[in-house]
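Because discrete structure vocabularies remain unfamiliar, we first show an illustrative case, written as a sequence plus integers encoding its fold.
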Amino acid sequence: MSLIKSISGIRGTIGGKTGETLSPVDVVKFTAAYGSILKQAAPSRKLKVVVGRDGRISGPLVSSLVTATLSALGIDVIDLGPSTTPTVEIAVPMEKADGGIILTASHNPKEWNALKLLNKDGEFISAELGKQLLDIAAAENFEFAPVDKLGKIQQNDTYMQKHIDAILAYPLVDKEAIAKKKLKVVVDAINSTGAVFVPALLKALGVEDVLVLNSEVTGNFAHNPEPLPDHLSELSSVVVKEKADLGIAVDPDVDRLCFVNEDGSMFGEEYTLVAVADYILSKRKGNAVSNMSSTKALKEVTLKHGGAYYPSAVGEVNVVSKMKAVNAVIGGEGNGGIIVPDFHYGRDALIGIALFLSHLAHHKGSIKSLRGVYPDYFISKNKIELDKSTDLPSIFARIKEKYSKLPLNDEDGLKIEFDEDWVHLRMSNTEPIIRIYSESDFEVKAKNIAQKLMQDIKENMG
């Protein structure tokens, strides 16, 4: 059982003790703290917050607690119901709301849920505001509204179409070229809201032949919901069996995206961003950003188009901050997260699908041949589970000393560069684990680098 408070929101498992899990008491407490921060910033006017959720089993329960708490604070609520993270993000400025809350634990298993907190621009709140929220929640000093000033709760189910309409209107989305390609697509919707949103988008783009796997929005995920190769064997086999042109996989809240080639092989979640960036940078010159755990292939593509590449700390809020600082035209994360800044500053699998298919539609060949345009780098993604007594700073300090003669970056955990290869060690924002990512031009070499560092960590944990 877990409760994790970070820049990625308030995340925890459902069921268990107050303060140790995402219990109803904790949901109310952190929602009240968030609402209190909004009220402090604008004490003299009526506030409005957009709320949406993914397809998790606990979604209706958590949503009812969140919307009722906001109402009790005197804040009006626009409840989108079952939605996606990027849809809520675009709804906040469209509604001229003061903030938003997305109820999703993203790629975590079904027993998890979370409160992802947005500012008035529909972007994740800053780390500074997050710390303020935790302090208010700890003090539990909330002031609720009198009965005649309770907030109104309004249901609004129009935003899927508004999101799709905005994608169709985006200048670099070529609906005509996509429709002309007459693609056959298999979608793994992982029993969440992507089962509704992704097919609707594909139809709007002119893709008529769509087969949806795990299409019931039950929250009983048919497999591990993180869209990684090990979890996509069903999608891969169905793409081959149905002679489809490609497969599409999203996570439960539809902010991560990856593709399967026509032969069942993986396009690679790292290369989702690389391919979309290649397409965008071929149309408009500019810079690109990804977090430092992402493939170096993005840097190479950006330089090819005459732009500059900048790494950021891991975490969407950090990527967005760096994108703004360097005026990037494309950015994201190697986990299949696409951020198109003039659309909105948030990872969005839906605009990612439209841009990727536009790129594929202009490519003279299959998705597998498109993948062949990009280099074959391999990232080995590993993790070590931690207990509460682990002294992570001292572990990293000893490893930093051991590799002190190599180029090091300690902006976010520790990144070590070995000639053309690298390894990145960092504490997860969302789980009690150390993530160990390494990249090389050979898969075995990447795995060996990761294993070596994992051994270093384990020796120092002892």
